[in-house]
Amino acid sequence: MAGRTAALVSVAAVLLGVAAVSAVAPPPAAPQVPPAGDALAVAPAGSHASSFFCATGAGTDAGAGATASVVLTNTNRAAAEGLETAVTQSAGPVLTRLTVPALGSVVVDPAAGLPAGASASSFSFASGGVTGTAVVAGPQGWSTAPCVTQVSPVWDFAGGSTAGGLLDLSLYNPTAAPAVVDVTFLTASGTVLDPQAYQGIALAPGQLVVEGLGAYVQNQPVVGTLVQSTSGAVVATELDQMAVPSGSGLALLHGSPGPSTTWRFAQTTAVAGGTVALDVANPAASSVVARVTVSLPGATVLPHDVTVPARTVLTFAVSSVAGWPLGSPYSLTVTAPSPVIVGRTVVAPAGGASPQGGIAGGTTTTSSSVLVVAPGVPGSPAVAGASIRSLAVANPGRAPVDVTVTPLGGGTPLARSRVPAGGVVVLGTGQVGGLRPLRVAASGPVTVEADDAPTGAPGIVSSSGFALPA
After folding, report:
1. Which residues have C-beta within 8 Å of that of residue 35, sequence separation ≥ 6?
2. Domain limits at 173?
3. How many structural domains does the chain have?
4. CA torsion 396→402→403→406, rounded to 10°?
5. pLDDT given at position 297
6. Least buried of 70, 104, 141, 426, by fewest C-beta within 10 Å?
7. Are residues 24 and 77 both part of a single domain?
8. For 95-134, what is each residue's pLDDT tens digit?
9. Predicted TM-score (pTM) of this structure
10. What is the pLDDT of residue 1?
11. Are 49 and 127 in contact (CB under 8 A)?
């Protein structure tokens, strides 16, 4: 009886703690229809709550042997108190109270207290200004992806392969309402796959489902994945265990809440012996001509038009275009008259550091204030030796913009630059390297891309940051 009483008291204490946090930072109670954009904006500091969601896929299929961590970053001038609710496919929820220091970051294990296997987490804080970045690391390499700050009935992906390695799709329902999901796959041949096993996937509130795509989407060199909720709203991510000629890679991808007519990559570098390719998925019933434009400091490069057939994903080898540079960073913009989905796949030359392959999605928004999160915190990298290698700021506008990069915690600016109209400025390790979170402030809308190390080539592990409130 004494042991039973202690257990009941413990459960009651947990429930009271959950109620207290939920009162100030409740999880989404109903599906939300997302605004246009990346779903990667930081909630204003004065918001009632800050919530975001991470599903990494580590620990199953493509993530077998991999571990996950989440870098929590607080843009407020006061410490942030919050709660993580974590589940696996068969266990949970496990509740953990969290504190993130003012203008700083902490690294947490999202699967702490859970049995082995893939996990997903909801983070809720009793104020705005807090966000998360997931890091997955395993025998094949490592990768990062931002935790998304909203649920959506639609998530789209371009990139990933089932011809080599493994490709998993994680579906997580952090809301209080049930959800039902259909998944359709676009291929390079134009064949549209809608396997019965991926139709009508039911997710109860708080449930995580991880689907290995190779069982039904077989031997496809590139895949476009379209997730559509027929009821409710979810979070979706993909994890690709890549098999590339130079070795291996591990790519964690957050989905985009819908296609877009414009996609931007602030920093792309094609190196000799490696490859850089854009994967362009066209979900429409008619073909579309996508224009790929390069912005290179001090030079003019002719754009390239790519015709993408209806309901097809097409790979365009950027590194093979005559006249486009090797070894020099440039920004890329993909525009189309009807919405498409775009990802970028980078493969390193032989002999490079691990990972040798990676995939990143572009950004669909611009901002005059951007938070850049490092892969860890000073003294505690999420992966051994990890740090920011470079930071690019691209200006898509018609007038120059002035840019200042500072540590989030304040202090002397790390760099000041003027980015010409349509231009890009790249800051190196000596200016932005390390594990400090950074704030990029510009006099006009820009796009940002941080390139992380160690990897076999630039762009294998990269991020476009979070839009901060003006």
Report:
1. none
2. 154-254
3. 2
4. -160
5. 75
6. 104
7. yes
8. 999 999 999 999 999 999 999 999 999 999 988 999 999 9
9. 0.91
10. 35
11. yes
